[in-house]
Design goal:
six-stranded mixed β-sheet; alpha/beta; binds iron/sulfur cluster
């Protein structure tokens, strides 16, 4: 109930490079921590989601958009859309991209039932949908962080595409790292002022960030 609207199934994913000061779940930073998410776990996840009183799925962590999670998370949100939204033709197209997702927004909304996907990530909307605008920021990070291999993987093009697909198939995106100095316990669904609760489909439709709530 604290991880999105309604009564939700929540999956915490291991793996996070953001390493925010004051993170509540540092045990999830290691991509190898936790319990293996296998076919049985996936079956259990969807068995819970099938229940009519469940409002949807929340993916958090750790970071669901960490490189080690992208394939698994894309599989889950694709399955969710197939199961509850009948957008199979869209998600099965290997060549789909941000523009393609934009073109299907109306279709997504028309077919969208009550169940929703919420995603919490340390990445921002801009880092996912306008990575070219973040190059300067990336360069600064590279200068600060000598672990080039990690950064290269984080900002690898195919990973960007997968992140855009995952977010494009979701409903609400709570974006950005937790910033301890901006902590505010009165905020809904997030921990620090910089984080935004973004209505994904409205934002794609209007080509600007539309908040789900303040
Ligand atoms: S993005 Fe989230 S899980 Fe990762 S370090 Fe920051 S607060 Fe923790």
């Amino acid at each position: 109930m604290n991880n999105g609207s309604g009564l939700r199934v929540v999956l915490w994913l291991s793996g996070c490079d953001h390493k925010c000061k004051g993170c509540q779940n540092p045990q999830t930073w290691d991509a190898n921590s936790g319990i293996l998410f296998d076919a049985k776990a996936k079956e259990e996840l969807f068995r819970e989601l099938d229940k009519d009183y469940i409002s949807g799925l929340t993916l958090t962590g750790g970071d669901p958009l960490h490189p080690s999670n992208l394939d698994g998370v894309l599989d889950i949100v694709t399955e969710f859309n197939k199961r509850y939204r009948i957008t199979q033709d869209m998600v099965s197209n290997e060549n789909d991209n941000h523009n393609m997702l934009n073109g299907n927004v109306n279709k997504i909304r028309l077919l969208c039932p009550n169940k929703t996907i919420w995603i919490y990530s340390g990445f921002t909307w801009e880092q996912i949908f306008s990575p070219e605008k973040c190059y300067k920021q990336i360069d600064e990070l590279v200068l600060e962080d000598n672990n080039w291999a990690t950064l290269k993987m984080r900002y690898d093009n195919s990973n960007f595409m997968k992140r855009a697909k995952i977010i494009g198939l979701s409903d609400i995106f709570v974006d950005g790292c937790y910033i301890d100095s901006q902590r505010n316990i009165q905020l809904r669904y997030r921990g620090s002022e910089n984080q935004r609760v973004i209505d994904v489909q409205e934002s794609l439709r209007q080509n600007k960030i539309v908040l789900y709530c303040d």
